[in-house]
Batch of 2 targets.
Target 1
Amino acid sequence: MIINSDWHIHSEYSYDASNSLEHIVEAAIAQGLSRIGITDHLNFNDEKFKGDIYASANAVHNTQKTYSNIVLGVELTPIERPEFDYIATCGKREGYIPPFQSSPYELELGMTKAQLMSLGIRYTIGAAHWRLDVPHAKSLQPDLNASIKDWYRQQLWLANDDRVTILGHPWYHGKGIWYEDFSVIPRSMNDDLAVALKENKKYVECNSHFFVSPKTSEKFRNQYAEFLRELFEMNIPITYGSDSHSNYGDSRAEVERYLRSAGFVEGDISELSENDLWS
Ligand SMILES: [Zn+2]
Ligand SMILES: [Zn+2]
């Protein structure tokens, strides 16, 4: 197989996932994976999300006693700085009113590197999930150009943040507004992103979602595999992430079909090295 490890798996400690660690380990062994990473969501700096991450860390540390090929990670998403500050002051998200301002919100992640490391977290996936340029962007109708611009901004910011190990699912979009034809993403944006990723020694994720979701077209899947291949050829290492939330199973054959047509062969998909993992 081209894919032999999986660095993006959600356990039941993510608010939107149901995989038990027992099930994940059984499935990983059945797939013959050499190493897996648990990356539950830390979307905000409130007690609820932090509590999920404490529980995830505890459970992974317990599992490591009997299965040593499991690594503790976390999935981080940029949030708007004023909301982060509000939560830091009030301890909760309720009551936050996004300020109107003429420029996009500054970005922040849910914890500092010291806080993450104190939990035994050894790496992070940083990934954009929603617009953060205007108030209440999540409730707006999807706007193709505004979304592309803001994903570009967030992904570039993540590529420059020292808490991020892997840029997770670049150009993922919940509603799949650009999943027909990847060429709507300007080439120049991906060139800029590649430069930042390379300079900052980031990994890029090959996320199974793009190749198995009913939302992506055949054309998009091939274009996306070629996008990953171009990054790979610039010596930006690629990791695999199933991003499983439930019924963790094996999607690698489907994903590898597209990777192979783009030129990937055995050995091209990386494991995180001990040097890249935090101690
Ligand atoms: Zn994600
Ligand atoms: Zn995820």
Target 2
Amino acid sequence: MDINFSQIPSSIAEKNNEDLITSILIFKAVRYRWLIRFGQIVLPYTLWIPGVKWAIRRTVFKHFCGGETLEETKKIVDHLAAHRVNAISDYSAEQADTKEKQEETRKNILESIRFAGEQHNVPFACVKITGICDRPLLEKISRNEPLTDAEQQRYTEFRNRLDALCAAAAAQDKKFFIDAEETWINPAIDAAAEAMMQRYNGEKQVVYTTIQFYRTDSLAYLQHLIDTADYKIGLKLVRGAYHEQENERAAKMGYPSPVLPNKEAVDKTYNDGLRLCIRHLDKVSFCAATHNTESTELLVQLMQEYNVAPDSRIVSFSQLYGMRDNITYELAGKGYNVSKYIPYGPLKETLPYLIRRAQENAGISSQMSEELQMLMNEKKRRKWRKT
Ligand SMILES: Cc1cc2nc3c(=O)[nH]c(=O)nc-3n(C[C@H](O)[C@H](O)[C@H](O)COP(=O)(O)OP(=O)(O)OC[C@H]3O[C@@H](n4cnc5c(N)ncnc54)[C@H](O)[C@@H]3O)c2cc1C
């Protein structure tokens, strides 16, 4: 089946003029790395200044997030349903360093799972582990260091939170993604995700762990899972969102960088990951979470080669809200199983997410300019229509 990602998606065509201009300005602004650096350092301290929150809400927040509450995302979820696009409501809290905040995140994610249960086009829910467990603890576990009694208690509480979320997803017959984070905390996340997959992935996958293919050890880890897991494996395949931080930390602390040195190597590894997964569909169900057109086209081609139906439930695609709608809408139009990750939550909580999106877009100028190009083309089309 032919797919064509070069068409302007209806989501861009449907934008009002103000939103279109805002999106263009956002994508133009994020090309400047210094501006993103500046925003990253300054923004968290300026939210109290009158007008700052208002400005963020009207611009980047509106473009990349579904709203501050689950109810606010509902309008977007319904709109996506009309275009055959699935949705994943993603409560964006990832700096939960107190028990109260972790409990609050757990409750919010539980709500999002209940919400998924009521919506026919929300097949997944998701969690970022740093929203329900504190970083120092994850780091210590990842270093394989013995825990004190108090830490062991906190770890048990975290595992109980995660277990409750996975159980709720299973009860609603929904799938549950566990996001991947930085390498210095991810061994603890992998271990918890594997334990949950073992517990909940019986006949079919409920829990999905995430593999970042910018990691030098990603293919070996994938192969190891396939060879050794005595349960069905659920996988979300991503390139990885913390490339800069990984290199910076490795350089600062003097250890070899755990991420691949260039984009070409990451692209090749990601595509090799797709090939490896599709050869093991008896055991693996996976979601290609990517905005990369070559990888998406490759997976479409592999699905044809391996006789996997476009609307198969074992292979799916996903993109982030506010990005690469041309891929999402084209796949949906051709009957593929595709979803949008819709982050939501209090503006302050979503800042790290927004900064990552800006960093990522600054780092990929060619893919980026394609997105900007589509917005500019739509602007030109409207101007021309008027004259
Ligand atoms: C639905 C969804 C869920 C996601 N969940 C997670 C998650 O759980 N954890 C997570 O870490 N990320 C997650 N991401 C983000 C993802 O890892 C990428 O950052 C993002 O999708 C951009 O990568 P891409 O595959 O779309 O492709 P592209 O846009 O083609 O590639 C950009 C990516 O390539 C890599 N890259 C860019 N420049 C270089 C370079 N110079 N050298 C080496 N590598 C480079 C980086 O990984 C960068 O993010 C998710 C993305 C989506 C769409």
